[in-house]
């Protein structure tokens, strides 16, 4: 049977790749090093598959169809939005586990939108390339990765309550999967950032610290209790991605969180938090 | 104009190569296939991203449209067009 071995909450900030030298060097190094720390920890966890919970940025899904939650069950490549140092590539999906999750969902009230051939965006590919692919290099084996996309950046937003339910469903489906997989889950996003709005460049460290506290103490309900109005006001439209955190935390059923790094980086328009979620 | 139609146009102009090409070729002709009032066409042609956001358009689309299609693709110009607060936009390069 498959088991869940842990996971991470990490950012997916494209500005890091576009303007790597914009922040002070020490701050930039701390952020890049945090990804490397996550990669080393993932290798130590001996994960064979990673589910990355991210969100579209109105690139992959258009106005003709905006899924609440979507899983890639087949051929996967990405990212669509290539960046310097983040080039498009084939991604080794764990298709049998992805299909199992989707089928289990249909039997338990979760009608997944399925992407049979999928191109990711940076919300998947940044943690994939900097953590999962890097951990594969460290281990010398291929770690597979499954994209899960939830509606965190484009309305109609998935409700936070549904994120909790979806996370529980993921946990149940993964742990019932008959093959011997070691699965980690990454929640990709946040924390405070204003994307494309006139406040872009604002970072709210107080809000970020509040989110980090909830994540490290596993207060999923407290995180879910932050209203959308409160999140938009204090964390910006980009902070709606705490939905990805909520879903990942419940999918892992983590017992505790450990802050790896936090850096408020206005030059990269984001408060960047890295948390390891531990199952023991 | 309904926000939905505007979002469809901006999404196409952000990600669809064919739409981008047709728009660059003849923007008025490209826009004529959508149910737009003259003031809506003018808003799109003048890259009035501030007004679009006031109409409820997702900021990720106004930003994508600006980066992909505007003559001046710099984020500093985009922020100026939005009337950004200088204390925030000063930290952004480019």
Please give a handful of descriptors for the protein shown.
heterodimer, A: 280 residues, alpha/beta, Protocatechuate 4,5-dioxygenase, Chain B, 9-stranded mixed sheet, 9 helices, 9 strands, 39% helix, B: 94 residues, mainly alpha, Protocatechuate 4,5-dioxygenase, Chain A, 8 helices, 68% helix, globular
Protein architecture, described:
- The complex is a heterodimer of chains A (280) and B (94).
- Chain A has 280 residues and is an alpha/beta fold.
- Chain A has one domain (3-278): LigB-like (Protocatechuate 4,5-dioxygenase, Chain B).
- Helix content of chain A is 39%, strand content 24%.
- Chain A has helices spanning 15-18, 25-45, 95-107, 122-139, 160-176, 205-216, 220-224, 228-235, 242-252; strands at 3-10, 49-54, 69-78, 89-91, 113-119, 144-150, 182-188, 256-265, 270-278.
- In chain A, strand 8 (256-265) and strand 9 form a beta hairpin.
- Chain A is globular and about 45 Å long.
- Chain B has 94 residues and is mainly α.
- Chain B has a single domain (3-89), classed as Protocatechuate 4,5-dioxygenase, Chain A (Orthogonal Bundle), CATH 1.10.700.
- In chain B, 68% of the residues lie in helices and 0% in strands.
- Chain B contains 8 helices and no strands.
- Chain B has helices spanning 3-15, 17-25, 27-31, 38-45, 49-54, 59-69, 75-82, 86-89.
- Chain B is globular and about 40 Å long.
- The model of chain B has no long low-confidence stretch (mean pLDDT 90).
- Chain A binds chain B through residues 18-19, 22, 57-59, 62-64, 80, 153-155, 194-202, 237, 266-267, 269, and chain B through 4, 7-8, 11-12, 14-15, 50, 53, 58-64, 75, 79, 82-85, 88-94.
């Amino acid at each position: 049977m498959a088991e869940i071995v842990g996971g991470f909450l990490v950012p997916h900030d494209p500005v890091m790749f576009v303007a790597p030298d914009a922040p002070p060097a020490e701050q930039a190094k701390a952020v890049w090093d945090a990804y490397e720390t996550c990669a080393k920890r993932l290798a130590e966890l001996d994960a064979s598959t990673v589910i990355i919970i991210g969100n579209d940025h109105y690139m992959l899904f258009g106005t003709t169809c905006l899924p609440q939650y979507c899983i890639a069950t087949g051929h996967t490549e990405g990212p669509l939005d290539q960046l310097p140092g983040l080039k498009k590539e084939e991604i080794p999906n764990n298709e049998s586990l992805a299909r199992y999750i989707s089928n289990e969902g249909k039997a338990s009230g979760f009608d997944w939108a399925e992407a049979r051939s999928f191109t990711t965006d940076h919300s998947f590919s940044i943690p994939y390339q900097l953590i999962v692919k890097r951990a594969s290099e460290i281990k010398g084996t291929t770690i597979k990765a499954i994209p899960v996309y939830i509606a965190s950046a484009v309305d109609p937003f998935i409700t936070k309550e549904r994120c909790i339910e979806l996370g529980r469903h993921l946990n149940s489906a993964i742990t019932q999967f008959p093959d011997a997989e070691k699965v980690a889950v990454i929640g990709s996003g946040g924390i405070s950032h204003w994307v494309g709005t006139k406040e872009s460049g604002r970072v709210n460290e107080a809000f970020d610290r509040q989110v980090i506290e909830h994540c490290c103490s596993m207060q999923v309900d407290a995180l879910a209790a932050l209203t959308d109005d409160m999140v938009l006001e204090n964390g910006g439209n980009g902070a709606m991605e705490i939905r990805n955190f909520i879903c990942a935390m419940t999918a892992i059923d983590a017992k505790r969180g450990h802050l790896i790094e936090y850096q408020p980086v206005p030059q990269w328009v984001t408060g960047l938090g890295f948390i390891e979620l531990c199952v023991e | 104009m309904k926000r939905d139609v505007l979002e469809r146009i901006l999404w196409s102009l952000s990600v669809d190569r064919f739409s981008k090409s047709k728009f660059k070729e003849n923007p008025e002709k490209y826009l004529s296939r959508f149910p737009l009032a003259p003031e809506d066409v003018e808003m799109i042609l003048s890259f009035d991203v501030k007004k679009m956001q006031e109409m409820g358009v997702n900021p990720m689309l106004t930003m994508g449209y600006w980066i992909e299609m505007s003559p001046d693709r710099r984020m500093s110009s985009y922020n100026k067009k939005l009337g950004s607060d200088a204390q925030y936009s000063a930290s952004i390069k480019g």
